[in-house]
């Protein structure tokens, strides 16, 4: 049976919102662009050390808001990294991939059988601390950050010079 996707915007900040899918229903709530944007097309190698330090930051935010910690998931990380790379390489910024894919389709393609999945995207931020601060200060993104139904995460990061793309994917498997 194919999942059914419906889209509803929850928050708007500098481009759109962020995306959260629950029981195969999509709702949007977070994309964030910082003021700096120049887009050359080179994608870096993912930094798993960054994912570990980001987990500490994200879980601090979650604990401060009464949510349990999330743990790193390689499949979610693959989906997040692929989307960050694609946005940077192809000079766009959207929750929808150039091929029309949604976050749910991207995590399934990475082998993650989700019950619930959410996505925050950002551009132009230079550090994991600054991008998380941006997401915390955006209501739609923060809803995803602290959603107690999420159990795992992956973080995608692509940089070329000062241009960056960040993708945080949060999920819970079936």
Q: Could you explain how this protein is built, in words?
A:
This protein has 174 residues and is α/β, with parallel strands linked by helices. It has five helices and seven strands, in the order E-E-E-H-E-H-H-E-H-H-E-E. The protein has helices at 48-64, 74-89, 103-109, 128-136, 139-146; strands at residues 19-22, 25-28, 31-33, 71-72, 114-123, 152-160, 163-173. Strand 1 and strand 2 (25-28) form a beta hairpin. Helix 1 (48-64) packs parallel to helix 4 (128-136) and helix 2 (74-89) crosses helix 3. It is globular. The two termini are 15 Å apart. InterPro entries: CAP_dom, CAP_sf. Pfam families: CAP (PF00188). Residues 56-168 form the SCP domain.
Features:
single chain, 174 residues, 5 helices, disordered N terminus
CATH fold-type name = Pathogenesis-related Protein p14a
Question: Average pLDDT across residues?
Answer: 79
The string of secondary-structure elements, in order, is: EEEHEHHEHHEE
Tell me about the largest β-sheet.
7 strands, mixed
Tell me the structural class: alpha/beta
Total separate domains: 1
């Amino acid at each position: 049976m194919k999942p059914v996707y419906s889209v509803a915007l929850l928050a708007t900040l500098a481009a759109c919102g962020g995306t959260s899918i629950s029981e195969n229903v999509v709702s949007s709530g977070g994309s964030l662009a910082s003021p700096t944007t120049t887009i050359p097309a080179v994608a870096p190698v993912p930094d798993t050390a960054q994912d570990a330090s980001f987990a500490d930051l994200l879980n601090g935010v979650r604990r401060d808001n009464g949510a349990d910690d999330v743990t790193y998931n390689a499949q979610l990380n693959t989906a997040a990294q692929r989307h960050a790379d694609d946005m940077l390489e192809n000079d766009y910024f959207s929750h929808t991939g150039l091929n029309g894919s949604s976050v749910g389709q991207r995590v399934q393609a990475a082998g993650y059988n989700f019950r619930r999945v959410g996505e925050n995207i950002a551009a132009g931020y230079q550090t994991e601390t600054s991008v998380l601060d941006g997401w915390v200060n955006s209501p739609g993104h923060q809803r995803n950050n602290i959603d107690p139904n999420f159990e795992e995460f992956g973080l995608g990061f692509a940089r070329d010079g000062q241009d960056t793309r960040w993708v945080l994917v949060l999920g819970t498997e079936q």
